[in-house]
Amino acid sequence: MIYKLRNDREPIRIAYLGAFQTIWAKHTLNPFEKLKTFKEGKANIEESVAQSPSDMEIRFIRLSVQLNAPKFLGYSNNIEEDKKIIRHCGSEIKSETLQKMINECIKLKQ
C-alpha cells in the first residue's frame, strides 16, 4: 500500500495518515476496499488521539473527518467533545493558519 509510513508512529503523522486514508477510501472502486481503507484511517486517527489527547491539531483532524464522513459509517461520536475541547483550549494554538481553519470549520468566531 502506498500510504503506509515506515516505523513512524508520531501521533500527528498518524493523524494525517488516518485523514488521508479516510479521504482515499472515497476514491476506491471496490466497496469492501473502501470500507477497509476508511476503517484503517479511523483507527489511525483514534490511535493518534489516544497517544496525544491534548493536541489541538489532532483533535481538529478528527473533527474534520467526522464532520465530513458519511453518516452511515457511524463515525461522528466525538464531534461535540472535540468542539468543546478546541473551544476551551483554542487559545493555545500557535499556528495562525490552523486557527483560521478551525474557526471556519466550527464557527468559533461569530
- Strand content of the residues, in percent? under 5%
- Rg computed from alpha carbons, rounded to a whole number of angstroms: 14 Å
Terminal Cα span: 43 Å
* Overall 3D shape: globular
Low-confidence stretches: none
Major pleated sheet: none
Q: What's the number of helices?
A: 5
**Oligomeric assembly:** single chain
Give the proportion of residues in helices: 55-70%
Instruction: Summarize model confidence as the mean pLDDT.
Output: 87
| Structural domain count | 1
Q: How many strands?
A: 0
Order of helices and strands: HHHHH
Class by SSE composition:
mainly alpha
Helix and strand layout, with pairings?
Elements: H1 11-26, H2 31-51, H3 56-68, H4 79-89, H5 96-106
Helix pairs in contact: 1-2, 1-3, 2-3, 3-4
Provide a concise account of the structure shown:
The protein has helices spanning 11-26, 31-51, 56-68, 79-89, 96-106. With 110 residues, it is mainly α. The mean pLDDT is 87.
Structure notes:
By secondary structure, the chain is mostly helical. It has one domain (11-106). It has five helices and no strands. The chain has helices at 11-26, 31-51, 56-68, 79-89, 96-106. Helix 1 (11-26) packs antiparallel against helix 2 (31-51), helix 1 (11-26) runs parallel beside helix 3 and helix 3 (56-68) runs antiparallel to helix 4 (79-89). It starts with 10 loop residues before the first helix and ends with a helix.
